[in-house]
Automatic annotation (TrEMBL), chain A:
Domain of life: Bacteria
Organism, scientific name: Candidatus Fimiplasma intestinipullorum
Keywords per UniProt: Membrane, Transmembrane, Transmembrane helix
InterPro entries assigned to the protein according to its UniProt record, in alphabetical order: Spore_V_AC (IPR014203), SpoVA (IPR005562)
Pfam family, one: SpoVAC_SpoVAEB
Protein name: Stage V sporulation protein AC
Gene name in the database record: spoVAC
Membrane-crossing segments per the record: 20-45, 57-76, 83-103, 123-143
Family annotation (PANTHER family): STAGE V SPORULATION PROTEIN AC, STAGE V SPORULATION PROTEIN AC-RELATED
From TrEMBL, chain B:
Domain of life: Bacteria
Name the record gives this protein: Stage V sporulation protein AD
Transmembrane segments: none
NCBIfam families reported for this sequence: PRK08304.1
GO molecular function: acyltransferase activity
Amino acid sequence: MDKQAYRDLVKQQQPKVPYLKNAITAFLVGGLIGALGQALVTLYMNWFGLNEQQAGTPMIVTLIAVACLLTGLGVFDKLAGHAGAGTFIPITGFANSMTSAALESRAEGLVSGVGSHMFSLGGTVITFGIVASFVIGVIRYVFFGG
Amino acid sequence: MSSLAGKTILFESVYLSHFASVAGPIENQGPLHEGFDWTYDDLYAGEKTFEKAERAMQSQAQDLCLKKAKLLKDDLFCVIGGDLENQLVASSFSARHLECPFIGVYAACATSALGLGLAGLVVEAVEQPVMVSISSHNATAERQYRYPVEYGIQKKPTCTYTATGAASFLLSHQKASIRLVGCTLGRIIDYGLKDANDMGSAMAPAAYDTIKRHLASRQQTCQDYDLIVTGDLSGFGAKMLKSLFQADDIDLSPYQDCGLMLYDVAHQKVYQGGSGAACSALVLASHLLPQLLSGQIKHLLYVPTGALLSKTSTAQKETIPCIAHAIEWEVCQ
């Protein structure tokens, strides 16, 4: 069998990624996290007398804290193995990328370990987040006058 | 010692006298748990870091092997060690306490066979005992080749699970029950596959090449063996290897893959099966060699495969060069 024939055979017989199942799970879990966020906003509004905009920040902090805690307890990666984009896309995914990288490099010390490796996965989100907001900001300034 | 056309090396008097294995928690939950000399309930193995845990496992396997052989470290001519960590730190660090000459070898997951083949050459040349020491650790491999251990990501169904454990093998010129008949060193084979999440199908052509060359130079067929094992092709890779032989109308049987033997693939979350340098080494030490000793199998071809990639080569979208080394074992009459 020549190399091309082999590559074709691999492509044809490779176990397929269950995209539909993954998408449905991600939709449900992501939706659940969104609903949880909304419940927290309502809760903080009622408990602390905040308005909706003010309640957003403690809601995000809560979700980040929970995701970090679950990462530290070794539960998040198992959860995310099923939920995929459902836990990866919300702020929980970003929190997990930071915490897991920090945990991983803790043995190399605080400065050269945790400090420099913490953003090894999440850094890309920040880089492109800033680039995207700059581009959108310029477009908005040029076309809509700021 | 002689070499045959096809570059197979035949040994005259190289014997496997003793061996020992130390395994991690997931391996201990697998079907071969009774065969390990020592097991750990967690990946840290009582150490502070995963790297230290891997070294501790390798040192422990070495000590157990020497103890079984009633040898002192001074009796060894040298140690040949290998693992998956950068700069082979698991092997060289764990060999500190042995205080004897050390050779570090790397062939990714085929390291055990490369170590055994080279050890055979040394034993034949100097007629003194040589120890081969192999390890891999799921967490050290994950962080080096993939992502942090706790990073939540959905794995592709073609992934494999890097085995945690260490195994040591003592080769000697003095007659013992198991003889190392010969070895065929692998060539670098690259069929142009790039998916680092599907190493089984990338490595299958390397196993195909080495097995074919070994059989041709020894003028054997697959059926001359009681068992032919590959190291960590696992479910899909093993299937592709069979397809490669089928295309040549060769019946690859009796055949098994260590990645499918180390774990209960249907019930343990190991995706296609096991991988890593320790995968084949653990199966050899806990299952195959005991079977040779008990006479359940008498003639074994052991062909671990290695994917010689790095995180950088994967990120740069390079294809995966692979290798497989074959070791032929037989029971002495």
